[in-house]
Amino acid sequence: MTRLFKKFTQSLPTFLTALALAITIWILAVNSTDPVDKKTYPVGIPVEIVGMDTDLVITNEIPQEVTVSLSAPTSLWQTLIDSPELIHASIDLTGLREGTYELDVEVEVDAKPVKVETIGPASMQVILEPLYSKYLPIQLVQPSQPAVGYEAGEPVLSHSYATVSGPASLISEITEIRAIIDVSQANQDIDRNIILAAYDENGIVVENVIIDPEQIHVNLPITQRGGYRNVTVKAIVTGQIASGYRLTNISVSPLTVTVYSADPTIVNSLPGYVETQPLNINGADKDRTESLPLNLPAGVSVVGESTIKISVTVSPIQGSITLNNSTIELVGLNPEYSVIISPEIVDVILSGPLPILDDLNASDVRVILDLTDLQPGTYQLNPRVEVDIPELLVESILPETIEVIISIPPTATPGN
């Protein structure tokens, strides 16, 4: 036994030398067929924050990614490039409290054999502050005004209060949560979502805080003030165009205007439209555009621009005809409602072959105003014209829009 042990100890150096030589030869053989390659990973690795207490918040800007260089066999590099999720970067905040820390970035690779050579940056400064919250009323701010003659009513907010959370140093500065709503030139109710923002006592927005809810729904009624009214503009045209030409269109801009009177009864007594001063087109053989004032009753003025641009389109004949005083046919009115329209008649300009126009009957043309699904209220609607003769074309309707007032009639009393 002693002789055997002595023989083993004598041959041990030779055995170890042979083993080391074999391992070296194996490593050289592996490296010759699949050498280790050291290079920088082609994309940044996102940095994950782990272990941070829920009552703390990071208040400084830290890099969102790091650059790493790795050593790995050549055969493994393509797998690493195709699967960036195999590489993880993190900074561990476990057990840390309020304060400033310089923390190492830890990188792990879920693949073997891979060695992390360098990390850039290798460490990051992290400033931790307590996470505070405030519960504040929401202030609705209207920095603009509705259209002239309109006013904003009482707003309805989906939430009256909001919670703002963030670092103690920022939360202490916040004095107000605002919802800013733009009502400039509004002439109808506003119904929209508004994003909230936090402000300090100087009216400066405080960033990097969390507001819950992020936005609220606001309904703001917009109503017309007494003495103001929107009315349709009707162009008055006189004279006959040149022989051999036809009048194809008369348009006005704007289509409606807002009028005002210190006596609201005067405005309310208007028929729903106002006329322009007459435009004389006698002998016209080309298009004309002129700006003319409105023919307004005494005590009534226009809000804004007081002149109306009238455009008259004149084209060589085929043929055209103006059907004056065509009655408007109402369809789709709820039988429980009553309606008043103004004006009740319109002028219709038709074009087409002259022989057909000469034989045209009033019954061939219908002017229809569709009131389907309309609720009580005041509307400016465009009538449509239906012509039973396909060769004829509707060129224009004067006026283009009709004022429609739908109401619920009063309940009749017994004996009346």
| Number of DSSP-assigned strands | 34
Q: Which CATH-level-2 architecture of the largest domain?
A: Beta Complex
Give the proportion of residues in helices: 10-25%
- Overall shape: it is elongated
Major beta sheet summary: 9 strands, mixed
CATH class bucket of the largest domain: Mainly Beta
End-to-end Cα distance, whole Å, is 138 Å
Task: Give the helix/strand class.
Answer: mainly beta
User: What is the CATH third-level topology name of the largest domain?
Assistant: RNA Polymerase Alpha Subunit, Chain A, domain 2
Low-confidence stretches: 412-416
Average predicted confidence as pLDDT:
88
Q: Approximately how much beta-strand content do the residues carry?
A: over 45%
Q: Which superfamily, in CATH terms, is the homologous superfamily of the largest domain?
A: YbbR-like domain
Radius of gyration: 42 Å
Q: Give the number of domains.
A: 4
| Tally of helical segments | 5
